[in-house]
Amino acid sequence: MSRQPDVLSTRALNRALLARQLLLRRSSSSAAGTIEHLVGLQAQVPNSPYLALWTRLRDFRHDELTRLLLRRRAVRLALMRSTIHLVTARDALALRPLVQPVIMRALKGSFGRPLAGIDHDAVGRAVRAIVDEEPRTLNEIGALLRRRWRDRDAYALSHAARALVPLVQIPPRGIWGDAGAPALASIEQWVGRPIAARPSIDRIVLRYLAAFGPASVRDAQVWSGLTSLNAVFERLRPRLRSFRTDGGPELFDLPDAPRPRADVVAPPRFLPEFDNVLLAHVDRSRILPTEHRRSVFTTAGLMSGTVLIDGFVRGRWTIQRARRDATLTIAPSAGVAANDRAQLTKEGKRFLAFVDPAAELLDVRIVRGDFPKP
């Protein structure tokens, strides 16, 4: 008779996720090792990876990530869910071919009509010739492609370039404090190595579980953007442990992965915009309670920086600068206990000092309701 899977509560799932994400206790790992453990960091907002690493690592400094980018050991490109991620160079070479169907599906969904019938191979060759000559912005690539495909829209062509060729956003884009349109190069030329010929989806699923488990098949599909992962999980089943939530789907996990007790204390943490910990599951209630979602997602699908209190998203943060002063405003979505308020203020000052090390006065304000109007 087969053993019934253990049932995990929402708090148990929360503590497991926090442990995998290095949000219960900061790690002494390197930035590169942490980026690989997390299978990349969401990076639509250029500074977000710096904040994501600071909140997870002891004594993290800006220049540690900056060196990885300048030395081409870390890169920024479209990967999971066809969104910009920061990953190590070797992960980029392995992940891009695996998620290429996701990126092509996104291209077809957004630009299927203006690109109908176009020769993908010809566009890909033209893109490589353009960016291998010198790095270009997406607008420049689109304009150059339109010289050949005059009946096509330059904007659509630029997005075809992004999908058909793995293009990395080269420094200074992604360097702390940099702004402006990114210049793009092919990843093969930038890192001097070819895309992986036979990447392993099994290995990536196991790494996903190590960073985000316990998780269901659909969770892995939401995180990656891939479909039809059932066969992968069934193939891996002998190597995994099975769990369930109350009335929820079957969850899979690595047998020896950390699953702390549900009552383990979780310190306050500050997360950047679009942190993957909030985007890697179908049911986000293990970290983002349903009643707080409206305060996190802003207009046009954007996400604000968020605050974890007792391990769950309980508010948002923003930073204002005035001359040499910096103010961190925290807007909890519910009341904050006195002890939590004291810890939040202490962590907030450390966070603010990292974000604005040149500031002479650091002020942390905890306000009721939404952010005050400027």
Description:
- The chain has 374 residues and is of the alpha+beta class.
- The protein has a domain at 288-366.
- It is 39% helix and 16% strand.
- The strands form 4 sheets. A 5-stranded mixed β-sheet has the order 9-10-11-12-13, with helices on one face.
- It starts with 5 loop residues before the first strand and ends in an 8-residue tail after the last strand.
Kindly, what is the distance between the CA atoms of the first and last residues, rounded to a whole number of angstroms? 64 Å
The percentage of residues in β strands lies in 15-25%
Main sheet properties: 5 strands, mixed
The share of residues in helices is 25-40%
Low-confidence stretches: none
- So what's the overall shape? globular
- Taking all residues together, what is the mean pLDDT? 93
Identify the notable features of this structure and list them briefly:
374 residues, three-stranded mixed beta sheet, 14 helices
Summarize the topology:
Blueprint: E1 6-7, H1 10-20, H2 31-37, E2 41-42, H3 48-54, H4 62-70, E3 74-78, E4 84-88, H5 89-111, H6 120-133, H7 138-146, H8 154-164, E5 167-169, E6 184-186, H9 187-191, H10 201-212, H11 217-224, H12 230-236, E7 241-244, E8 250-253, E9 269-271, H13 293-296, E10 305-309, E11 312-322, E12 325-332, H14 338-355, E13 361-366
Parallel strand pairs: 1-7, 12-13
Antiparallel strand pairs: 2-4, 3-4, 5-6, 7-8, 9-10, 10-11, 11-12
Helix pairs in contact: 5-8, 6-8, 7-8, 10-12
